[in-house]
Predict the 3D structure of the following.
Amino acid sequence: MHLFTIIFLSFVCASVLVRLWLGQRQINHIRAHYAEVPPAFADKISIEDHHRAADYSCAKLGFGKVMLGWETLWLLLWTLGGGINLIDQWWSGFEFSILVTGIIVIFSLGLISSLLDLPFSLYQTFVIEERFGFNQTTLKTWLTDLLKTTLLVVVIGVPLLSAILWLMNEAGDNWWLYAWLLWVGFSLLMIWAYPAFIAPMFNKFSQLEDSSLQTRIEKLLQRCGFQSQGVFVVDGSRRSSHGNAYFTGFGKNKRIVFYDTLLKSLSAEEVEAVLAHELGHFKRNHIKKSLLLSTIISLAGFAILAWLMRSDWFYHSLGVETASTHTALILFMLIMPAFTYFVSPMFSALSRKHEFEADEFAHSNSDYKALISALVNLYRDNASTLTPDPLHSMFYDSHPPATIRINHLETIASSGVSD
């Protein structure tokens, strides 16, 4: 057995075992606090809502274990089991050009993987989400979304993939730098195009009709020096009762988007506080920092891929007989999650730091008590557990746990600290 095969299997096994261990820790921690609402929320969250959040979290964690086993099985079948090699040898027999063969092989693998995952997607939407009262999606809507997504992947993905594979084959030793520049440009284009062209394919966006809330929001935007194309309401209730709010786009194409479910559950003061938090991400340059970090990571990824694809052992140790640019790309994309899993706490910690900073900005530009009230309502309405395991939270949570986050806001308020 090749040394890299042993290294790959070691990382896969280690990441799977740690994920299962962390998942069970989370379940045990939630169950241990099942009987009582945390004191900080005793007057805000009912015991019924607390139980619902615990049951929902545990159901998702149990389903996640099954998904993890399924994904790991197919990762090994595609690589060491020879699945990629089989598909590659089959299509190579038709003697298409190397570029066409690469595109067909990659899309064949993607299609098969998507079909294998369909039952799990259906179960998550129509069983788990349905059981806890979140699902609003009909089978017709689900199938329509699937068709639209597939068409987008073909229309957008084929030209991008063709360009990257062409660069890998024809651009010489520095192909990875050119491919990275292409990827960065494509990412910026998608950020710009998503709110105006892609998102409306799936949801209806309308201008905010509540004039008093609109006036309140406009005053907040003026205070914060933020300009956008407008405040929009998206019909998220067509698919789920979960609530959310977000910014999308950049430059003159920025939009503020509220889910209609969020507006129904929060007061005007709470909506303003949530928006102030989102503005905090913009004013503290979190979006720019995240974009810069992703470009650096993608640059490193392309450079590592360029090094690996020149080595025969990379292919042979992962079950592929014939070296090619497209098999190198496939193998790299498949195995990287196992190797990068253990750095995920760093990115989670950075995200939580950004959330604290955005909360501090919201405290300075809105009523912090309204933000706390909004957070409690969101935790309740989205059935988010109030009692996460600290270690599980460290690995996975992009937002601080509810108790810590609210304590942070109250500490800022009592100390008189402003942004």
